[in-house]
Amino acid sequence: MNHLLGSRHTIILAVLLVVATATATFAQQKVISDDTQECLDCHTTVTPGIVADWQKSRHSHTTPQDALALPEIERRMSTAQVDETLNAVVIGCAECHTMNADQHENDRFEHNGFAIHTVVSPSDCATCHPVEVEDFSHNLMSQAYANLMDNPVYKVMVDNTNGLATFNGASFHHEGADDMSNADSCLACHGTIVQVTGSETRETDMGEMNFPTLSNWPNAGVGRINPDGSKGACASCHMRHQFSIEVARKPYTCAECHKGPDVPAYKVYSVSVHGNIQKSVDKYWDYKAVPWTVGKDFTAPTCAACHVSELVNSDGEILAKRSHRMTDRLPWRIFGLPYAHPHPINADTTTIVNQGGLTLPTELTGEPVTSALISADEMAVRTTNMKNVCSGCHAQQWVDGHFARLDRSIETSNYMTLQATKVLSTAWEEGLAQGLPQGANPFDEAIEMKWIEQWLFYGNSVRFATAMGGVDYGVFADGRWTQAKNLQEMADYLKFLRAGQEKK
């Protein structure tokens, strides 16, 4: 009998324990706003992948008041306070997609009793992350659309690359690129202009509904022009709907746009010592820690460690402040232009004009447009900022030697581009190719395309290989060997053009 009573008591205690645990778990759950819950009631069925992704996010189980209770250095939001209506609820569908309705007069629409907008913009994210959004507004990435499409020089290159070429029996007629081709190529990374062009009625599982028609959509390019007029897309790096700092810190995110051959950053990183360590042992790393402690949370830098994240040493001393400008630790702009040069002062580079009247930060012969670029003093500050990152693992002599090599790499790669420019300029001067002196397209003939490859592919590869330690990309994999080979081919082609001219 006592045995049976003991068993009963055990069962009762077990049941009480389960109930207590369930109650405690329920109490620990964060409050979801009524508006977001209404969204979830439908979208759990309609878009289950989105909901499941959000449920894994920090947004889904952290309220602003929880986030602000952390020590400042550990916070992931930079505002000091939020509106009372947001403070005690998790950040869900309604908190983002109904945010700032007055700023979304161009793209908001009625949806089941709510005024919502499809495109959540940096202006919306600034409600909780104002410092990051302000930083990003000074980032070249935020101007990536205009810096490409509103620059007359680059626009010609875009059209020549993406537009159709029609053969007329002797040469090609190049047409301008269409919006879809641009959106599917350059602007996938640079960003499109997204506007509401109308509306459409669709029959859905929930009945007939009206939706806005968005131009140049979908897009998550870093310089996207949003319907509310803001620039950028936070989801370029913090993908919907987890918006994870872990994903943003991993190099695979940057590889979406920085893989080459024009921007071979990820390819170079993947064969570097740092990339090897990351791929081999990052299962032991903590990609979510804020701040990010060198040696404890990670043992080799990723793109984010060098360019974005707040880093501290084991004593909690700050090695690098968090920045979404991406240039606070970068003295040189090493890709995308004919010549590496000091970084522009302003993110909008369409206002830079060289002495030849071209919207370029250097002359065609390499001299920088100094009035538009950062000073030598500022370059020194930024170099020191980057060296501080390196100092978390490396001694000074190692670090200084690395940066001395980078300076030399910039010097030599620029020199090899200059030699290619001399060959091309000779072809133009002798009338063997039609380019800038003739007021013609400088990107559409064979010798001109080889000139582009000299700096857009091979010069970039050399510099990235030195900057990030992926040595073969500095030699035989689109590096110095390819630079030298391409230069010789340009000179040989010039001879071919001259021979053809003499026969006429």
From TrEMBL:
UniProt keyword annotations, A-Z: Signal
Signal peptide: 1-27
Signal among keywords: yes
Domain Cytochrome c-552/4: 125-201
Name of the protein in question: Cytochrome c-552/4 domain-containing protein
